[in-house]
Amino acid sequence: MSPPNVSPKDFFKYLSGVKSAVTAKRYAEYAAVFLKLMHSGQYQNFDQLPPGTLSDFASQLTHKGNSPSTVRVYVFAAKKYLEWVQSRGVKVTQQNRPELPKRILKQRAVLPTDQFAAYFRQADMDLKEPLRTAVMMLPCCGLRASEIVSLKLGDIFKADVKLQNGKTKKTLYLRLIGKGGKQRNVPLMEEGVEILTGYMAGWRRRQKGSWLFPSMSESAIGEKHISDRGLRNALQSMRESFGIDFTPHTMRRTYITLLWRRHIDLKVLADIAGHASVQTTINHYIIMEPGDTLEAFHNAGSALTD
């Protein structure tokens, strides 16, 4: 009996039934890259692969200039591909735990701007709705985990904002009740507006209930929202392949720090964050880097006679 077909094209067909179209396409593309490496090493069968093949894959991707997070995504997809191949009855050499490039951030840090694309890509690949959109929205709105999971459809508002150049910009913002019962308006990053718009017009439009991120538990469909724990577990599931240690609060700091770097007034920033004291925002949510100090100094004027 001949073995089943295990080409990236067949892998894509399988994934299309369990993942989104975008995720299925990306996993298949990464599997094709892995197979190219496999064949370049003169390995035609999966049981001929050395136990360190995934580590070799990571090393080659790194030498080609890929970032640590990108390398981890590719290797993670290759690992999933080999697991699928094995599930099809094909003998596959047991792989050692791959040696991956490390980049660990402390939880009190922020997500670097050059990692945003990888973060969104990984969430899109690994997570199902509504957790996918909830995770992707975290750095776009800076809400606490408890706040974002309990959002309702009625908390989303449209706005026409007048810009300094005289033009009007259409956007979305969130209105919610934070700590102490204080109402506040939370603007969304442009990526967040795009993500939320697609979510509302797509998956969410077909669901019942008033929660923005409804629970998909069979006993609570349409009646409850996703839990804090579920959101944190979703982020936890991304860490191994992404290579960065983060929590929902990391994304909250990321949002607040980005707004600060764009010179939003601290009092306004504290209001957006839902802090009663500006000092809370300064002491715990703004992460300064060496470049921030130099930029602030030279923008203020660096000559004695200015």
Describe this structure in words.
The protein has 306 residues and is mainly alpha-helical. The chain has 2 domains: 8-87; 113-294, hpI Integrase, Chain A, CATH 1.10.443.10. It contains 13 helices and 3 strands. The chain has helices at residues 8-16, 21-40, 53-63, 68-87, 116-126, 131-141, 145-149, 190-201, 228-242, 248-261, 266-273, 278-284, 290-300, and strands spanning 156-162, 168-177, 183-187. The protein has a 3-stranded antiparallel β-sheet. A hairpin with a 5-residue loop joins strand 2 (168-177) and strand 3.
Mean pLDDT: 86
Specify the CATH class of the largest domain. Mainly Alpha
Percentage of residues in helical conformation: 40-55%
- Read across the widest sheet, the strand sequence of neighbours is 1-2-3
CATH homologous superfamily designation of the largest domain: Intergrase catalytic core
Range of strand content: 5-15%
CATH architecture of the largest domain: Orthogonal Bundle
Ends distance: 84 Å
Counted by DSSP, the helix tally is: 13
How is the CATH topology of the largest domain named?
A: hpI Integrase, Chain A
Shape: globular
User: How many structural domains can be distinguished in the coordinates?
Assistant: 2
Q: What is the number of strand segments? A: 3
